[in-house]
Amino acid sequence: MSADSSPISTDIDFDADGRQVSYLRAPHSHNTSGWGNLLIPITVVKNGIGPTVLFTGGVHGDEYEGPVALMKLSRQLGPAEVQGRVIIIPTLNLPATRAGTRLSPIDDKDLNRVFPGHPRGTMTEVIAHYVRQEILPLCDAVIDLHSGGYSMDFVPYISMHYLEDEVQYEQTRAALEAFQAPVALIINELSGEGLLDYEVERAGKIFLCAEMGGAGMLSLPALRVAETGVRNILKYFGITEGEVVTRESQDNPASRLMEVPDAGYYHMAESAGIYESFYELGQPVEAGQPLGQVHFYENLQRDPEQIIAKQSGMLIITRGPGWVDRGDTVAVLARNFATRPTELRGS
Ligand code: CA
Asked: Model-level pTM?
């Protein structure tokens, strides 16, 4: 075993045709099982030559539409309908999914903040490293299915980042639109390094992140969006046959291309209390208007603190629980996509 080889192993043969349903086995020594293992479910469906798409869910354990859509896909998809390869991991952060928490209870780490990971690190880092080292090189595209988790709630959207490489941008943008979510979003994230997203993008591949609902719930409308979206991605890449199912063909409003260009669209609470949003998800908000207010339940003489919209746009993310702490994100707005390609590349 070399210094950078993963302790994770699998009996999956990624080059074999057919449908394989098995596990990624990560050794996990703990008090009740000294020679225990974490068995992360994985399905691989392959037939002949063609593109490889990786679908991941459960990177955060309190997000449910992605895992359910992917478990269904895992059961339904057979090699006869596939040209290429589909890798499905519905609950990549299995310990977090078991606990129903964002972070892994094994090491209190966020799987989507520890990339590129480390083969001798903690469990979360070991999982991240395996994905980057062993699975990512096999893939042409990675579709990571998230939701708002316990702490946030989202308008169901499919998203990508502003990418400097023109070809990668155009290819990712086409896949983004093929997913057919209510909103197709180009987003400038403020969450820092360590995301799976950047590993895939730096490798020159296509990366999309779906955000499908949240507040600790499984939303039925968002689940339908996820189910249609993963099928649409397979059709878009020519892995399965048939036309992409559009929103309009399902009697829904067309997918809206929107963007979150900078920090001006993010709003946080600056005091702890109970957050009252003045808007529901999907509603338009005017710059300068109050988005909501934080109530001070321990001091009835104190007026609520208003949170003022810094920009005009649609409310696409809101706080999940009613209580908020100082620094919590309570609202994110998106505007109709207006950035020109030349601005994207800073030229
Ligand atoms: Ca998430």
From this structure: 0.96
